[in-house]
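Chain A, query sequence.
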Amino acid sequence: MDKQKVLVPYNFTNYDEKALDFVIRRFAEDKGVEVTFFNAYTPVPKIELRNSLIMEKISSNLAYLQQKIHEHETGIKQAREKLIQKGFSSNRVHYIFRALNKDVAQDIVDLVLDNGFDIVILNRNPGKITRFFTGSVSNKVMKSLKQVDVYVVT
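Chain A, predicted structure.
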C-alpha cells in the first residue's frame, strides 16, 4: 500500500496546535501516513545599508525580522519533534520552510499538486472580519483542490 501524504500548513498559532493535536489523534498509529508541515514566510529584503541614523533603524528592523524567521523555523522543527514524541517515526514527519512565492493559499495549492499530497489539514481563525473582504486561506485552498481531502480544524 502506498503511503498517504498529509500536508499541514503551520503558522504558529493556537489554532495550529489544534490541527497538530488532530493529526496526532488521527494518524499517529497509522504507519502508512507521512506528514509534512509547511510554512511560507515573507523574506527579509536585502538592502544596501549606508552609515546614517535612518539606515541604522532599518538595519535593526531587518535584523528583528530575520530573527523572527529563525524563531519560526525553530517552531516548525519543534512541531515535527512533537509528532515524533507522540508516536510518529522520524522518517514519517517532514517540514518545508521556505520563502513565500505567490500568496499563502496558492503556495499551498501548488505544493499539494506538485508533490501529490492526499490530505490537507487546515485550521481556521474564526471571527475575523477581514476574511469577508479578502477570503480566507482555507476557503481558497478548498475551492482549488477538488481531488484532495481537506480537513478544517476549528
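The first helix runs from residue 14 to 27. Residues 129-134 have pLDDT under 50 and may be disordered.
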